[in-house]
Amino acid sequence: MPKFGQREKEWIQQDLLTKGRDLFVKRGLKKTSISDITKAVGIAQGSFYNFYESKEVLYLEVLEQEEEKIREQLVLPFFQSGNVTRESFKSFLMEAFSVMETNAFIRQLFDEGIMESLFRKLPEEKVAHLANSDVDFFTPLVEKLQRENVIVEEQSEVVIQLLRMVFLLFLQKQQIGEEHFAESMDLLLTFISNGLIKKVD
Question: Which of 19, 105, 129, 166 sits at a 20 to 30 Å CA gap from 157?
């Protein structure tokens, strides 16, 4: 098995992430083999294991990159804006839903039941990290709004769990039924925004 220099390792790992993402979006996790990925990158199949212990671990890292982009481009600017109202919070949720729905990689997680496969095949510590990442990220943001008297004084974990539940509902549009989904979701987000965000006097 060839040995790679540090810079070459960095290039190959980035290429694995980029080419892996492209293949996962095109074929899905189940139909993408390690051989497919290594051929796209131009390395021997055995060399894959110098970087990742399985294709599921690679998939998880791609997922974490996608989440990081969404957080940096959408979530952090909103929570740090200093101007959170019921109306802006609802608009933020709608924009977040739009981003997730148009992101082919995120969309695939739920359309193809990939999340269940990940939980079955990933090491326990990575499953725990995946399950806790939202709480770890959102807790200081929610607590900041609570200190600023913007959001209700509920346990931050409960607020975060509520938002996760709403996002999961949105990603189950086809299963729930699309005929009145937009109107129902709009009404639900109004209730949630009015319930979480304090009214400005």
Answer: 105
| DSSP for 111-151, written as a single string | HTTHHHHHHHHS-HHHHHHHHHHHHHHHHHHHHHHHHTT-B
C-alpha gyration radius of the chain: 20
**C-alpha–C-alpha distance, residues 79 and 146, integer Å:** 12
Judged on CB neighbours under 10 Å (0-12, 13-18, 19+), 93 is buried
CA–CA separation, 23 and 183 (whole Å): 35
Helix/strand/coil for 30: coil
DSSP letter (8 states) at residue 48: G
For 3, list phi and psi in degrees, rounded to 5.
Answer: -100, 135
pLDDT tens across 92-110, in order? 999 988 888 888 888 887 7
Q: How many CB atoms lie under 10 A from the CB of residue 196?
A: 19
| 189 contact partners, CB below 8 Å, separation of at least 6 | 90, 93, 94, 166
**Quick one: pLDDT at residue 111?**
65
Give, as one character, the DSSP assignment of residue 153: S
